Amino acid sequence: MKSYGINAIRNVGLFGHQGAGKTSLAEALLYSANALDRLGRVDDGTATCDFDPEEQKRRISINVALAPCEWHGTKINILDVPGYLDFQGEVQSALRVVEAAILVTPAQNTPEVGFDLAWELAAEANLPRAVFVNKMDRENADFGQVVQTLRQRYGNSIAPFQLPIGSADTFRGVIDIVEMKAFIGSGKEVACSDIPPDYQEEAERYRELLIESAAEGDDELLEKFLNGEELTHDEIVRGLHEGVDDGKVVPVLCGSASKDIGMTDLLDIVVHEFPNPTEVGKIHGTHPQTGAEEVRPATDTAPLSAIVFKTIADPFLGTLSYFRVMSGVLKAGTTLLNASHGKEERIGQIYYARGKQQEATSEIHAGDIGVTAKLADTHTGETLCDLAKPIVLDGIALNEPIFSVAVVAKTKVDEDKMGPALHRVVASDPTFHYHRDPETAQTILSGAGETHLNIVIERIKHFGANVEAVPVKVPYRETIQTKAEGQGRHKKQSGGRGQFGDCWLRMEPNTGSGFEFVDAIVGGSVPRQYLPAIEKGIRQAMEGGILAGYPVIDVKVTCYDGSYHTVDSSEAAFIMAGINGFHAVAEKARPSLLEPIIQVEVVVPEAMMGDVMSDLTNKRGRIVGTDSAGKGKTVLKANVPHAEMLRYAIDLRSLSRGRGTFKTQPSHYEEVPAHIAQEIIANHKKEREAGEH
After folding, report:
1. For a surface tag, which of 304, 383, 595, 642 has the fewest beta carbons within 10 Å of its beta carbon?
2. 460 φ, ψ to 5°?
3. Is the model's pTM score more than 0.85?
4. Mutual angle of helices 531-544 and 571-586, in 10-degree steps
């Protein structure tokens, strides 16, 4: 592929809900632009952009994929972006490096949540947008209904640029509302003709909507339109172009990716209506040492700056880093600065990529996208720049993980390999986190959802660590409810010097104040040097729990009497006395089980608040309050037991049809209801007995 100047580059992403046909659309665009000799198919595992084995197995896109093509002297970098809600991080990464978004929705349904989320994110980034209504060749296709729904949601910015000719089995082409011409045929065999008579009236009606949108794209034209004056063709074209650039006009096109109908018109829209990288403005960042603002033009002559927006770790190919050059020229064989953490990075060979195919090149210019391999210290969201002209670009804002599972290694060998495998996976997927929970001794994986973590586990296995998922353990606690006293005694005689330790303990609740040990010995019944041993024994016993093996908290223990032997007493003996004393007294002090309570903040559409509130109540949650979040959404605050929230990411997605979000933070501990506590204690007893056998 030849090198293109920045004015002849378009970076555009394909966004939308899962199943909208984005990957098939990318394939059809590549084929129509002669970048491919034949059309691949998602169902056959031959689509250019779905080259990951997990993508081919699951028939869903997992990674943002790069697929460039050339059209009328312009290079179009197409980014095929996953629509599955577990991979919203890929949406956020792609939006960071494109100048425009094509939102894809099928003609059979109203746009779903993945479409709406991408629209909101693109709008926040002030990106020009277009809508492509796909699958016009399928049953129940209804272009008019989709347009009506879009205008209800997003207003008069929705501007149909096309009208389908036929639908389902009869779909055979499109009418260009701007030029008022019909284009009938598929692929490269498309004939231009007059609008069929039976579509003339509908085309005129849609053209009125288009003229209204064009007028709103330009203040001068709007005034003329409101005065009842007719806009010329050139004015309509100008108004639409300016409106698209400003986000005031969103073109709506239609077609069929599988039948290769409507592709050339969509490519024309990208080339003629969407901005090139220079039209977006200058590159802004900060100086890594001083924090001062750095501004540079998006040109080849400016100092180099580039952002890595995707990292792929493959056990066979190694690490591949996808980057967008924001300014300057990135050349193979140069040393750059990773300004995000101040380390130098040697750039080896660089490539243009189309799916998994790579084409070596010596340099990549401002505005273009490329790939390099084996970067040592650079990850997703980080900045590469000129050593002498450092700049840190804005990174990629990613959602925090909301779903967790624990994993265990199958064998000792797998356990040794698990750490390096986890490190490689997290380096390629910043939406995935992991940590070792010191309280439960589990390795916890956290991500965006169940499917996301299932794929993460498969990747861990690909890197040689055979692991399996197990439930996350809840970090329960134990405490006591009343005061009690008793003796702790340890006596052992086995020939030679014996072991003797004796203490009397008083135990009482110490709510909210942790553990407290009080020395109340009088008269030297226990020598002072043995009291630390008694405390140590009590602390050891508290770690092992009273009822179900969970640590004991909020207890005050007073040692008020005891006895010793001048020969047989020792520190070890009094440690055992402390352990025995704690167990003897704790059992009489009404021990109870405590569970962690977490603060939950849920944001949902107002219409769904009742269902979400009812669900949290059924999870033993207490509703704290509600607030308006704007845009028709409500913030619901509640305190909910941790044990009830382990699968809440899945539950909320089902309840809200993917439109709800939530975040949590630890709050406090409360006593577990008796019937639940009995079950937890019984399970602990079974596990202990199984371990003994």
Report:
1. 642
2. -60, -40
3. yes
4. 50
